[in-house]
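From the methods appendix. Each design record in this collection lists the tokenized structure first, followed by the designed amino acid sequence. Records were kept in a plain field format so they could be parsed without special tools. The example shown here is representative of the layout used throughout.

RECORD:
FOLD TOKENS (154 positions):
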């Protein structure tokens, strides 16, 4: 692979040549996971999650991962500093249960992730690069609130 630096809108700004490649792994990553009733079968979400998480270098001086699952409500499944190893994170991902709910409130979940999931109380590190991954299957019931929720995260 090739490391690429991106700007705040995730547009590539610079590629780092493979011979000089050293990607930053000092990151706090929060996965905002749709657990509404339209997500089926759930084991595919668990497989997707474990596949992504298995690629990360997880550790207190490297990548920390938190998961916030949402439907009508948003629940912190685990905080950034809760698990210290890849094995612990993968086990938690395999055991995550679907929250369920008839609505998909993506804007609400993004707001909660920005204001809570990256906080120092939940293990957020001030000098770490922050990345939020939103995993959903479609349209949000609070779609009109998405632009202000995203703007709040910048």
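DESIGN:
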């Amino acid at each position: 692979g090739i490391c690429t630096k991106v700007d705040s809108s995730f547009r590539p700004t610079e590629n780092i040549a493979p011979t000089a490649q050293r990607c930053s792994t000092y990151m706090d990553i929060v996965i905002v996971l749709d657990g509404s009733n339209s997500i089926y079968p759930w084991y595919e979400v668990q497989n997707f999650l474990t596949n992504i998480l298995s690629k990360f270098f997880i550790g207190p001086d490297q990548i920390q991962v938190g998961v916030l699952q949402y439907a009508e409500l948003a629940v912190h499944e685990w905080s950034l500093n809760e698990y210290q190893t890849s094995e612990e994170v993968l086990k938690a991902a395999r055991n995550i249960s679907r929250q369920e709910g008839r609505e998909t409130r993506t804007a609400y979940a993004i707001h909660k992730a920005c204001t809570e999931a990256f906080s120092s109380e939940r293990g957020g590190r001030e000098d770490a690069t922050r990345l939020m991954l939103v995993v959903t299957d479609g349209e949000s019931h609070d779609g009109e609130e998405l632009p202000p929720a995203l703007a709040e995260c910048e």
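APPENDIX NOTE: The helical segments are 42-53, 86-94, 106-117, 146-153.
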